[in-house]
Amino acid sequence: MPFYCSSLVVEKKQNYTSVHEAVKAGDVEQLALMIKSGAGVNEVDVVHKFTPLHCAAHSGSLECLHWLLWHGADTTHVTVRGWTAAHLAAIRGQDACMQALLINGANTEAQDDRGCTPAHLAAAHGQSYTLQTILRSGANVNVSDRNDWKPVHYAAFHGRLGCLQLLVRWGACIDDVDNNGNLPAHLAAVEGHLHCFKFLVGKMASVTHTLKARNDQGETPRDLAEQFFKDNILQYIDGMEKEGEHPEAQEVLAFPAHDAAFKGDLLVLRRLVRSGVININERDDKGYTLMHKDVPIWQLWNF
């Protein structure tokens, strides 16, 4: 009888050196076998002090994350920087993992070593979709870290326009100052984030109030822009002051990526996405994503 190799097909098992590797690979079967063989569900790795749950949240291994939660993984365990699994899901924009963590009791008010909550970190990293999930769970939109930075300060400082828009829609106070007296507008100016600066100027009570606001060192947004050579901010302020210009057409200004998508301006759209100003899944004030603006999916994914 002839011998056929195909009749002896055997599935090759991946060998992992730790349960953390299995989780990163999304291999829930090997995860289950390793836990059954004695690995701890809350076992901590040597380097980053990550538990398997941290690894799942960081890598987006949703099936493994569900399995770990069902088997008693600790959502409160922190890394060396004070991050829970929810903090890591926020940083990485792992929205499905964030939802699963919240359903299983993860604390959205948990603070890391700098006093940052998941909302702070989602705003800092431009993860607007995950930030919205956090806010919908009831998280405080105006929570402060140890420097009195709120999520809106992080969004302004890092140039995350989409997160800034979202936070304002959820009631973020853009006239709150940090422990150095800086408004979010000061932080946008010092980093040269023009889209964010324009948005904040347009949302404040008055243009003059924003442009003349001084921090604890007596510095206005103009002073900071001059100090750090942010010519784009200076040119905008000059136009506002000399011509009495007021930011109009807020709908277009507030959502430049959606406006570019609607016009078919892929060069502008690509620049906004690549620079991190907006996220590809950003929604405007009517809940529309860029895909609703008739941008072909292959053009977005080839950014």
TrEMBL record:
Keywords: ANK repeat, Repeat. SMART domains: ANK (SM00248). PROSITE patterns: ANK_REP_REGION, ANK_REPEAT. The lineage of its organism: Eukaryota, Metazoa, Chordata, Craniata, Vertebrata. ANK repeats lie at residues 14-46, 48-80, 81-113, 114-146, 147-179. It comes from Pipra filicauda. Transmembrane segments: none annotated. InterPro entries: Ank_Repeat/CDKN_Inhibitor (IPR050776), Ankyrin_rpt (IPR002110), Ankyrin_rpt-contain_sf (IPR036770). This is Ankyrin repeat domain-containing protein 42 isoform X6. Gene3D superfamilies: Ankyrin repeat-containing domain (1.25.40.20). The keyword Cell division does not apply.
